[in-house]
Amino acid sequence: MKGTWKLKLRLWFSMLVMFGLVYVLIMLAGNFLGFGGFYGFYAISGLFVLFLQYIFGPKIVESSMGVHQLSEAEAPELHQIVEELALAANIPKPKVGISNTMVPNAFAYGRSKRSGHVCVTRGILGLLDHDELKAVLGHEISHIKHNDMAITTIVSAIPLVCYYLSFSLMFSGGGGDNDNGGAILGIIALFAYFLGQLIVLFISRIREYYADAGSVELGCQPEKLASALYKLVYGAARVPNQEIKDVEGTKAFFVTDISNAKNEINDLSQLDFNKDGVISKEELDLLKNNQIKVSGSSKIMELLSTHPDMLKRIKRLADMN
Prior knowledge:
The protein is mainly alpha-helical. The chain has helices at 4-33, 37-65, 76-89, 130-145, 148-171, 179-217, 222-238, 241-246, 261-268, 281-288, 296-303, 310-320, and strands spanning 67-69, 95-99, 106-109, 117-121. It folds into 2 domains: 4-200, Zincin-like (2-Layer Sandwich); 222-320, no CATH class. The chain has a 4-stranded mixed β-sheet with strand order 1-2-4-3, sandwiched between helices. Strand 3 and strand 4 form a beta hairpin. The longest helix is centred in the middle third of the chain and has 39 residues, at 179-217.
């Protein structure tokens, strides 16, 4: 699809920067401390963290979100949509579940394409029509198809390694005149940790764009995904703050950034021209030829978010229309 090669390029460049960053830090720290075992220790530490995230990640998500697996008898429409999308994506059909939270959204998790799970929240049921729900589930199926769970696990471990390096270097000098050098390297590693976190967020935002494009590639209509995103933002903005806080720890899995919903409403007023609460094909066509105005605060919020600015996401969908 047009434009997806740019997303891939940005993704792989970001990951290259991440791995290059931690490699250089480990090399410098190893030289400073004067022994080669240092390399192996942090490599093993990073791999151990990856292993734990890989093994226990799905169970942690299920437990924190209170996921209940749905049988075909309980949710025939959901199962049919997921089966159709999985067939189009050429992956095994993921398991289908529901979370009891009333925050309207959906998410995917699992260790691989063969162990994928797609889950909807109770709050999304009845909010979206059939095609909007299919477009959202197409987004989640695309995450599974692209192995986003594994990629997120890998890149998230890199800042953690930088943090370990920083802590070790600042509190265990190389001895004698090298103490100041260790502190300086520790500060550099700490800076790399924060930079790494920003890169992880950037990669996460790219994955969201990529999953949006993937939903369209699976046959879902851009205007239906745009309309669904629009409704999810407004739906989340109406949910009590306590319910948002209860699931905030897993918001990176969601289709939208539920914590930023109220801030996004003002920008989204540019989209619904007839104010009917739906983004139609005609409205998306109009957006394709119009310039969007993202507020300065929204640009700053985006840098610290796992999700792209919603107005920019829908504008990109308009370009696919």
